[in-house]
Design goal:
Layout lengths: L4 E5 L6 E5 L2 E3 L2 E3 L9 H4 L6 E7 L5 E7 L7 E7 L2 E7 L10 E6 L5 E5 L3 E7 L4 E7 L8 E3 L20 H4 L14
């Protein structure tokens, strides 16, 4: 049993929320973002291979929706260090009862949440404030040749972004909409 995290289920098997439990006093707080021992069930035989930090300057910007094709599929631990984001995971597991459904969590420093996105999911987010900083822990290092993506505006996904979609990169805009057989897009 963890003293620093509560593990909360979502409607999608394997997709979980870590509710971090800061310890504080009048000076501020200490908060554990990750503990390999306590969170071993999420990473199994893997380890944290890469840590990334992003800054997104403008409110409404959407980044993603990204994943890595097997055998480079990864588990991600996603936290927001500054600002607030609408963080989205899309289930890409063909045999899952929630295949192509999405789940979102609002992440911010104030709510102390981390979204744990397992292998078989794609990930993206929309900034709800300016100057959002995100921290990602990955179980597999980025492999450019294994990269895949979904179009954030795909009507088949029907993600209900809280703000009008803005700031999509050329790469993210170019992700195709899903075809009827999902070929070429979904692992």
């Amino acid at each position: 049993m963890s003293t620093r995290f509560d593990i909360l289920a979502t409607p999608m098997a394997g997709l979980q929320v870590l509710q971090r439990k800061p310890i504080g006093d009048s000076r501020g707080y200490l908060e554990r973002l990750f503990c390999a021992e306590e969170l071993q069930s999420f990473i199994l035989e893997k380890h944290i291979a890469q840590i990334n930090h992003t800054l997104t300057a403008t409110c409404g910007t959407v980044r993603g929706i990204h994943f890595q094709h097997p055998p480079h599929a990864e588990t991600k631990f996603v936290s927001c260090l500054r600002g607030e984001v609408f963080d989205v995971a899309v289930d890409l597991r063909h045999n899952s009862p929630t295949f192509l459904r999405w789940h979102a969590e609002r992440l911010s420093p104030d709510n102390h949440k981390t979204l744990v996105i397992p292998e078989g999911f794609a990930h993206g987010f929309q900034t709800l404030t300016d100057d959002c900083e995100m921290l990602y822990l990955h179980t597999v290092a980025y492999q450019p040749g294994a990269e895949g993506g979904l179009n954030a505006q795909d009507p088949r996904l029907a993600i209900q972004w809280p703000l009008p979609v803005a700031g999509l990169s050329a790469r993210d805009t170019a992700h195709p909409f899903l075809s009827n057989d999902f070929s070429g897009v979904v692992p």
